[in-house]
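Researcher: Let's try something more involved. This one mixes different molecule types, so please make sure each is placed in the same coordinate frame as the others.
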Amino acid sequence: MADDRQRMPEDVAIDAASVAMLKKADADGVPHDAFSRADEQGAPCAFGSNGTCCRICHLGPCKISEYVPGVCGATLDTVVARNLLREVAAGAAAHSDHGRHLVLMLKAVAEGRSTDYAIRDEAKLRAAARAWGIEDEGLDTLALAAKAADLFLSEFALQEGKLQTLRLAPKPRQGAWERLGIAPGGVDATIVQALHRTHMGVDHEYKNILRGALKASLADGWGGSMIATAVSDILFGTPKPVRAKANLGVLEKDKVNVVVHGHEPALTEMLVAASRLPEIVAEAKAVGAAGVNLAGICCTANEVLMRHGVPVAGNFLQQELAIVTGAVELMITDVQCCMASLPEVAKHYHTKMVTSSPIARNADAVSVHFDPANGMACAKDVLRMAIANYARRDPAKVSIPDARQPLVAGFSNETIFNILGGTFRKSFRPLNDAIITGRVRGVCGIVGCTNARKGRVDEYIVTLAKELIKRNIIVLKTGCAAVAAGKAGLLTPEAALQMAGPSLREVCEAVGIPPVLHMGSCVDNSRILMAATYLVEEGGLGNDLSELPAIGAAPEWMSEKAVAIGHYFVASGVDVVLGHPFHTMGSKNVSDYLCGEVAQETGAKFHYISDVNDAVEAICAHIEKKRDALGINQKSERKLYDMKDRRALNV
Ligand code: NFS
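Model: All components are placed in one shared frame. Result:
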């Protein structure tokens, strides 16, 4: 048993496959996993969790309290707000650097420097050009791609003026950002400014700092992430509905299993293509395997799931457990959410650990050099390492849980438009009408991570989604929350329809969408922002995002990226429910602003709700309040129109 396990496997996860692998880890003598390390940590440091530890200069670290400021005089409110803004900046940086890499790749493809990749979705490129105001008359695909890449790069590099990407938002929202002074300029400059204003001795006004957090988050949601999604679609294809499977049982006993883990899709796209090459399949067969099986963890998984139907081995807290199956020949990680512990776990099995990003190495893993110019060669090398490692697999140590849930993913907005309106009259109208008539009460985006310290993994996420669809609220999913839903069968349209309330079910069956829609990775929360924008633009649900009967939830979040995402939803006018608070509880003023006063400025706020049943009630109440304000909750008499009435309607 893990040396420091205090909670039993059944106490930490609802998913039987994870429970089984935790038990196997104990039996195999793996000394630690994320859950046992969480137990070992014990109660978190109160100064850290309250956000009252200040270590931004070397007068400190200072332990701040209501009565004791820092050596420099920084108060509780200043320190808590400053720590939060730094988290937002880090989250925004992670998403945006990912976006930048994709734009550089688009530029390389456009300039013929990266022949392994291509423009897969010209329609998306042309649509993006229109959305960003790029003149595309007479330009061929590559010339337009070059122009788009330059514009996107300038969004990162901009020194004066505001992000052009903000123009995708509804006009009143853009006006609100201007009025509040939170419309960001260039992505890089905004993040630099966030770090600057939180340096010792700069910004001391907590509300000003928190507005800085909203601004930095907008540079992520409507900047770096929005661009990352657009460019991923242009380069790799806009997702369409695709059937696949999720959970550790997607690993295959008789194949060379390669797990892709992290966030950036560039190399992973090549691994998918390479794994299907006859020469690679033949090499796998030559070592006695039936072929190569790719499976994903975290958001890299979501990227290749959405575009290629590559199965998902698991979400965040299953990364160590995938190795514990004993059936993984190689795990390749890129950036973000890849635990430092992976090579330690891998030492107990035959799994080879490989890293592919120069900024995300691990001393105990092999690092490969990947750049877009050598994409296919690098992918083949990685697969060959995996194939060579197959012989080292110890059959006595292999136990793959019998858990693979079928699912449908791939709900980009383009797909939703097509499904709702058909190819020739793309439209959100049927969804707007269903919301206006009350058959669909509203929309909830359930996003974010899983957390080893907060209840049983996946439980809040899954229960919330089930309860909301039961109450006729349609659910949009991204990130690890989407994978949790997949493992629980909520992305199997037939099963989810059974669980949905009668009127939601009727609408979903009529228009052909499931009640829980997997919209992609965490950068694809930008798709949720755009879905909300399309609902506003379609008409009948107010003029701004803040008027929509819509809300976001991050029940089991843990990363700084989730902090940034929460902030850009609130800055965009969409309330957010968090299953546990930010590290702000040390300052009543900061918490009160985030969970109260900010609504007077952006039209939305945070709700810290630890109990899932309370969250269900709060979300339904919020949606009904928005419906009341829109005047769509009044029961209207059903009226039969004659020709004269129709003319009078002037439509
Ligand atoms: Ni999002 Fe995706 Fe998962 Fe959380 Fe990590 S993988 S980017 S941060 S843990 S949802």
